[in-house]
Amino acid sequence: TSEGIFETLMPIMEKHPGFSLLVTGHSLGGALASLFAISAACRDDIPKPVKCITHAQPLVGDKYLLQSVRKLEESNNLLLLRTRNYEDGVPCVPAFSTKPNFTYTHIGTELMMYGDNTSNKIKLSQSDKNVRNFAHNFTALIKLFVIKAGQDKQRKAHSLRQHFLRLEKCEREIRSLGENLEEVCSKAGK
């Protein structure tokens, strides 16, 4: 549980005043990292802002979680950046809910990274309650679960190694957005 993590984390934070908390994860670990970062940002005994960078994170909440995260971001308690490869279908799941009137949505700022055959290398956007790029996301889901030829490309696009390679390849464009997480996230709403 997050309480067990806080029991271990708090003595370390107290021993090193002035340090901040950076949480990171890939895929399901990215989803868990973002939820933990939200929990940490709500605590009074954690230095702010809590920073979270995830890679290939699936959807984790609904419009109400998005609203709560926005409040944490606006009050400078949380900075959340999700990186995503364009061809990766995992950030599109779960695509549907069995609960009526429930729609999964992303939270935080998204840094989309494109492959070699595009003129745009990156796109920065703020999450919103509307599902964007439905056709692209649906295509990525079909490749992820149905089409064998797409599965191999999907596996590669989802790998953490591929994320790091793309981050490296796009470094100049990302640095043009800002030198730190605060600057990069602030550009998403503009």
Shape field: globular
Strand order of the largest sheet: 1-2-3-4-5
Helix content: 40-55%
**Strand fraction:** 15-25%
Number of helices: 8
> Structural class of the secondary elements?
alpha/beta
Average pLDDT, rounded to a whole number, is: 85
Rg over C-alpha atoms, rounded to the nearest angstrom: 17 Å
Main sheet record? 5 strands, mixed
Q: What labels would you give this structure?
A:
alpha/beta, five-stranded mixed beta sheet, 15% strand
Describe the protein in words:
The protein has 190 residues and is of the alpha/beta class. It is 46% helix and 15% strand. The chain has a 5-stranded mixed β-sheet, sandwiched between helices. Helix 3 links the parallel strand 2 and strand 3. Helix 4 (134-145) crosses helix 5 (148-158). The protein is globular, with a radius of gyration of 17 Å. The termini are far apart.
Summarize the SSE layout with pairings:
Blueprint: H1 2-15, E1 22-26, H2 28-41, E2 50-55, H3 63-74, E3 78-85, E4 109-113, E5 122-126, H4 134-145, H5 148-158, H6 160-169, H7 171-177, H8 181-187
Parallel strand pairs: 1-2, 2-3, 3-4
Antiparallel strand pairs: 4-5
Helix pairs in contact: 4-5
In short:
This protein has helices spanning 2-15, 28-41, 63-74, 134-145, 148-158, 160-169, 171-177, 181-187; strands spanning 22-26, 50-55, 78-85, 109-113, 122-126.
